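Troubleshooting: if your tokenizer reports a length mismatch, compare your output against this known-good record of 202 residues.
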Amino acid sequence: MKTYFRIVVLTSMWLPLMGCTSENNKSGNAPANVAVQADTLQADTLTVELDDESKKEILTEQLKKKEEESSMAKKETNTSPGKEPDVITVQHCLIGFQGSVPGKPITRTKEEAKELAERLFKLLKDGDKFEEIINQFTDDSPPGIYKMTNNGVRQVPGAYARAGMVPAFGDTGFPLQVGEYGLAEHDSKKSPYGWHIVKRIE
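Known-good structure output:
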């Protein structure tokens, strides 16, 4: 039983592969009967008549390879799994302690700030509303929303460069999926103002 495939490929690529040159056709040695319809825009349409299963497998493998290459190209164009996004928008609640935030008369100790931040973070995971927590507890200005561009990315209007923020802010925000929360622990170099509870909103 003869099997037919109708495929769209570049003629210059496929004719040598199938041995379908004009000389082979004239001599009658061509392995398949090939009808070529020229497409003047981009490609040629080949209708290939196959007489055995091995030729079918060859064509199937070639088409599969092309599909895989196309899929890989799309992945490189789009954001790949594990790759941080170029731009994000986050909302945060800053829990500072005495002397950690310039101009803020905070009286809680560092230990109290740590305990409060961890307790609020747990409440958020249990379903509490972030806006209410921010309005009541943040030592930044509500609503605490910031847009950030990642390192090596061209600046976006209205966005802050990641390198211009405290390191823990971006380190916590960029790995998050939209809707997820993260907690940036206080660190004298990476998070000097205290604990940041961060939610990615875009």
